[in-house]
Design goal:
Blueprint lengths: L2 H17 L12 H6 L5 H5 L3 E5 L11 E7 L13 E8 L5 E5 L5 E8 L2 E7 L11 E5 L2 E5 L4 E4 L4 E4 L3 E7 L6 E8 L8 E2 L28
Antiparallel strand pairs: 1-2, 2-3, 3-12, 4-11, 4-13, 5-10, 5-12, 6-9, 6-11, 7-8, 7-10
């Protein structure tokens, strides 16, 4: 992805969150210059990958397959003594027909919440023992109501609605055609992108970036360490 594209998507997300009255924490707006002066007092942000995350999954087609996320809080399974939180929270932007590829988590249980905007479509399968799609039916909780699902069935979340996705539930999601961008929340167990994502197809988690302009804000993988 071009840095100019990433910057534009971050600006668009800030505008959407503002219109929908969702307020980001102060570190969302720290500049690269500020990060160069930040010391160990902000290591919780560095170590737990809080902040901006814009990905095209290595495919170079962000509008078709991509996601913008901002991780607000997170724990750390490998450093529990320092970061004992057992939970995480994200806010995301999902555009019309913009796909987040099929994946599931071995450990993470997550609530996906439509916080406002358009409608969010999720397609669901159980994973089988070979990391493929199972032909079994299964249940999900949609705002506390159990719903029996056939393999590959869809759930549409309107603003205010949510679904709980258990481990081993394959999911893909996108904004419903003809609708506005969706502001999507996630409340979950600790998020561990390095060890707890199983994608159906082999994909890159973070983009290769072409530096065609300076970064507006650093991504969560780019923070410098104090010397």
């Amino acid at each position: 992805m071009n840095r100019s594209e990433i910057n534009a998507h971050i600006r668009d997300a800030i505008s959407l969150f503002s219109r929908l009255s969702f307020h980001l924490p102060p570190f969302a707006f720290w500049t690269p210059e500020y990060w160069r002066t930040a010391g160990p007092e902000v290591n919780e942000i560095r170590d737990n990958f809080l902040g901006w995350d814009v990905t095209d999954y290595g495919l170079g087609r962000f509008a078709e397959t991509g996601l913008l996320l901002f991780t607000i809080r997170n724990g750390n399974f490998t450093r529990k003594d320092t970061y004992p939180k057992g939970y995480a929270e994200k806010i995301m932007v999902v555009r019309e027909n913009q796909i987040t590829p099929w994946h599931y988590h071995w450990n993470k249980r997550e609530d996906i919440i439509n916080r406002g905007g358009g409608e969010l479509v999720l397609e669901l399968f159980l994973a089988d023992d070979k990391n493929g799609f199972s032909d079994k039916t299964f249940s999900v909780s949609v705002d506390g109501v159990q719903r029996r699902m056939k393999p590959g069935a869809s759930v549409i979340l309107r603003p205010g609605e949510s679904i709980c996705l258990e481990p081993y539930v394959y999911h893909t999601f996108y904004g419903r055609a003809g609708g506005a961008p969706v502001m999507v929340g996630e409340v979950s167990d600790v998020n561990d992108d390095a060890n707890d994502n199983c994608f159906l197809d082999k994909l890159g988690r973070f983009p290769d970036i072409i530096e065609d302009e300076p970064p507006l804000h650093l991504l969560c993988t780019e923070y410098p360490r104090p010397e």
